[in-house]
Amino acid sequence: MSLKNLQIFQPLNREKNRFVTPLKAPPSALSRHISKSAETLVATTRCGKEIKSRKARSTEQPGSGGLPPLAHNWPDDVSLRSRSRNGSGSSRAGSVDRSTRGSTTNLNSDEDNINVVVRVRPVNDQERSRGEREVLEFPGKGQVICPGTAPGQKHKEDVLEYSGVKRLLEMAVEGFSCTAFCYGQTGSGKTHTLTGPPGLVERGASPFTPEHGLVVRSFVYLFQLIRDRPDCHFVLKASFLEIYNEKVIDLLNPGTVKKPLQVRWSKDSRSFYVENLFTVDCEELDDLFAVLEEGTRNRAVGSHSMNAHSSRSHTVLSVRVRRDVRSERDVTCSTHGKINFVDLAGSEMTKRTHSTGKTLEEANNINKSLMVLGYCIAQLSDGKKKGHIPYRDSKLTKLLADSLAGNGVTLMIACIAPTRSNLSESVNTLRYAARAKKIKSKPIVKIDARDALILSLKREVELLQAENQHLRTALHVHIDYSMDPSGERDMTPRIESNQLHQLGQSELVRLVQLHMAESAALRRENRELFAARDLLLRDHELVTRENERLLKKLEDVNSVCIRSPIIPAQPTYSEASTKEPDVWTNPSVSSANSTTSREKFKT
Ligand SMILES: Nc1ncnc2c1ncn2[C@@H]1O[C@H](COP(=O)(O)OP(=O)(O)OP(=O)(O)O)[C@@H](O)[C@H]1O
């Protein structure tokens, strides 16, 4: 896997503090610069023109669906700002250009990297009142330069790689397990990125309010995707939980505050899950929005000197997408996709946040679980180390295990603050982002085992039928199935695909058994036909050999005849088949032709 989509989220107008459209760069427009001497990694995009045209496409609305466009009211001229100092926008001296031109994301490829994007929030009022200003630099081409915190210190640059949440949603609809998570220090804009400014969701603002974050926009896009697929039947279910002080609380079931939920290991799916988590059927966009609203109201929020609305817990909002689709063999297959939105609580330097008492306890738990997450990311990103990954050391890593290195597709949104006082944390976040980018997962589509079994049996039956038909034609065998004494043929009932889901467990078991019996009968017939063919081939070979033996004998006789002045020789079979039967002339009679004829026989 190589670099794919690179994105930077940046405020369009820092003074007005506006939200920014994510920009999607084409895979072909990416290159990566690595400067080992400065221990830096910089991701760059190559061509502004390409970026613009791709952006125009990425905001295209698939079908009307009665919904306003996703980019509704979003600023247009966005967001990968190039404030190139040297005009070229390339990294500094010593950098090596490792172009990844033409790299694409192949959903069928075995492995996929975690996609990483970076979002830089604007300078906030508190920082402005302290006289702080933005110190991060964006020379263009996807780079962020974090100037050294001390004089003489080398400048740090970190890799910024990005992707779009739209791709994740499209994959979730196809049956992949997807996760978008925000990572960064406290107050860096994680919650803002996902759900917009504080109070917006809780107020129940319309889903089309432009201030909404990625979650609501994703919901809108998800419903657009669903409406664009009238050939499929979709079932959406949502759940919302938080991990507060290492306890899992169902945000849709406040009773669990007193009785936290358990995280268990499923042998079947080979992943962790939360027992007894409440899930809500969501038929409409409003249902999804209601889940978000209810959960956001219930989540733990506190205040400290760096953020008046600081999340004190990690939250996981999951939308499961079941898609029933009629396959080419008239079987209805169900895929089970998922999209998780994870809002991590921010790491805190308690000296800076002045946390005490309850807030301090929360901060310690947050930092501890983030440390385990960081350790897992470091282990996973180091391709050489194949040691133990300590997922079990925190609830957060248990629940993210599959997203980090399992069969899921993951997008990490690294959030950073733009000011000097936050530089060391920003560099840390970018370092983790660069590490996370190296992690590989193996995305797979989850399909119902029952449907997959029926489909594969049907495929096998069809293949066997075709092969048997071919053999029968080749062997000139005619079988009247209505007369089949075994009575095994044609007894599998033809079930309409849309009826499959109405069948009870016992009926389904019977159906599978019938398919298996039909397949077994076909295999038996297939074996018999192959045996008959082998027998015929053997007979044919015997006849051919006998034929050759006789021909040889005839040739021997002929050679004797040629030498005899009184017995006329007979033509060989091959000679006879190619020549007129009685053009043969006895060499003893016609001396003029004798040499030629003899030579002919020898050949
Ligand atoms: N892109 C942005 N545009 C405008 N305001 C922003 C932006 N990002 C963050 N903010 C503001 O900065 C403040 C802190 O942001 P937010 O609460 O999202 O941070 P956080 O990373 O979630 O912090 P914590 O980890 O403490 O929960 C909020 O008031 C938020 O509205």
From TrEMBL:
Single GO cellular component term: microtubule associated complex
InterPro entries attached to this UniProt entry: Kinesin-like_fam (IPR027640), Kinesin_motor_CS (IPR019821), Kinesin_motor_dom (IPR001752), Kinesin_motor_dom_sf (IPR036961), P-loop_NTPase (IPR027417)
Compositional bias segments (type: Polar residues): 585-596
Domain of life: Eukaryota
Domain Kinesin motor, chain residue ranges per copy: 113-439
Pfam (any one): Kinesin
Protein name: Kinesin-like protein
Organism: Papilio xuthus (Asian swallowtail butterfly)
